[in-house]
Amino acid sequence: DIQVTQSPSSLSASVGDRVTITCRASQDINNDLAWFQQKPGEAPKSLIYASSTLQPGVPSKFSGSGSGTDFTLTIASLQPEDFATYFCQQYDSYPFTFGPGTTVDIK
Amino acid sequence: EVQLLESGGGLVQPGGSLRLSCLVSGFNFRSYATNWVRRAPGKGLEWISSISSSGTTTHYAESVKGRFTISRDTSKNTLYLQMNSLRAEDTAVYYCAKDGSGWKPIDSWGQGTLVTVSS
Predict the structure, then answer these.
(1) Does the beta-carbon distance from A55 to B107 stay under 8 Å?
(2) CA end-to-end span of chain A
(3) Is the peptide bond before A40 cis (omega within 30 degrees of 0)?
(4) Where are the alpha helices (DSSP H) in B2-53?
(5) pLDDT band per the 50, 70, 90 thresholds, residue B103
């Protein structure tokens, strides 16, 4: 099975900060990498697929990059609504696996 | 508008069974793969099962293989998850989720239903 790790596990940031989260797969997954956002008590929200393609309706302050085994999610200018937990997921091969998550909270 | 509405969660004893349902609308159920994903208290998201758009192929996480069964009834626009031999570690919010077209991952989620396994 493909293992997925994320770093950091948590970070504190201020409104307006640029934030970068890293996701690493244990083997080459091409660009079959998605990002999701989840706020407490809410369902997850799909942000990005194919490493860098935004889902419809997702603001352009979110961006993704990477291929192979190393990927990043960047939030250009953190806003109050962006404080949440972010998960990456590889969907290159079953079983699909999520990273452990990165919690972004207010500094 | 795509909608997925889960039901069937609740409290069940260890070793017991439960069937979750997910009523979908706003898209052609026969054209998209659908999934179950869970999040246990204090843990991250865990993908647990998928069924293909044709309904002929299913996949499971090792943690539930042999105990859980995914299925669907296209005439009722409903996705199911039959859960048997439940364990305390199956306690979680269970989400149904729809894939995008082609080889694309989840693009829409239900609100979730809570399953608690406890005596």
Answers:
(1) yes
(2) 36
(3) no
(4) none
(5) confident
In chain B, which ranges are E strands? Answer: 3-7, 10-12, 18-25, 34-39, 45-51, 58-60, 68-73, 78-83, 92-99, 106-109, 113-117
Main-chain phi, psi angles of A7, to 5 degrees: -145, 145
| pLDDT classification of B75: cutoffs 50, 70, 90 | very high
Could you tell me which residues come within 8 angstroms of residue A100 by beta carbon, excluding any fewer than 6 positions away? A5, A6, A9, A87, B44
Residue B48 near residue B63, CB atoms below 8 Å: yes
Q: Could you tell me which residues come within 8 angstroms of residue B106 by beta carbon, excluding any fewer than 6 positions away?
A: A34, A36, A44, A46, A89, B35, B37, B97, B98, B99, B100
**B58 confidence band (pLDDT: 50, 70, 90):** very high
Q: Which residues of A touch B45 (CB under 8 A)?
A: 36, 38, 44, 87, 89, 98, 101
Report the DSSP pairing between strands A85-90 and A70-75. unpaired
Residues of A in contact with B108 (CB under 8 A): 46
> Hey, CA dihedral for B84, B88, B90, B92, is it positive or negative?
positive
Rounded distance between C-alpha atoms, residue B3 and residue B110, angstroms: 7
CA–CA distance, A106 with A89 (Å, rounded to integer) = 25
Judge contact between A70 and A22, C-beta under 8 A.
Answer: yes
